[in-house]
Amino acid sequence: MSNIYDLANELERGIRALPEYQTVVEQKAKIDADAEAKALLDEFMSFQQGLYMKMQAGQMPSDEDQVAIQGMGAKIEANPVLKSYVEAQQALSVYLADIEKIVFGPLQDLN
């Protein structure tokens, strides 16, 4: 039987070789080269992290938070560089969700 760590490393290499992963890397490089897109993405990620922390503390996002996140989402949709990045991430996330189901399947069997 193969060493489980060897299999995990092989999976990592497989993910990095996916065209969808390469597209995310390319789109991220475009964001890093575009100050406006980078600032907007950083703002969005920071805000999203704040919402996550609120929810972890048992607080629901306020109406103002929901309006703010919708506004940021609209700005991201309007920015072609960010829109392409989000679309690329979504395509990659399909693979990652499938892999997660496979990897955690044995743990689900224990419940």
Would you mind describing this structure in some detail?
The protein starts with a helix and ends with a helix. The longest helix has 30 residues. By secondary structure, it is mostly helical. It has one domain: YheA/YmcA-like (YheA-like fold, Up-down Bundle).
Layout: helices, strands, pairs:
Layout: H1 4-17, H2 19-32, H3 35-56, H4 63-78, H5 80-109
Helix pairs in contact: 2-5, 3-4
- List SSEs in N-to-C order: HHHHH
Helix content: over 70%
| End-to-end CA span | 26 Å
Report the mean per-residue pLDDT as an integer. 94
Q: Approximately how much beta-strand content do the residues carry?
A: under 5%
Anisotropy-based shape: flat
> In the CATH hierarchy, what is the superfamily?
YheA/YmcA-like
In the CATH scheme, the class would be Mainly Alpha
- The count of DSSP E runs of length 2 or more, i.e. the number of strands, is 0
Family: Belongs to the UPF0342 family.
InterPro entries: Com_YlbF, YheA/YmcA-like_dom_sf
Protein name: UPF0342 protein SAMN02910293_02121
Organism: Streptococcus henryi
Structural descriptors:
single chain; 111 residues; mainly alpha; YheA-like fold; 5 helices; Com_YlbF; YheA/YmcA-like_dom_sf
Can you describe this structure in just a few lines?
The protein has helices spanning about 5-15, 20-30, 35-55, 65-80, 80-110.
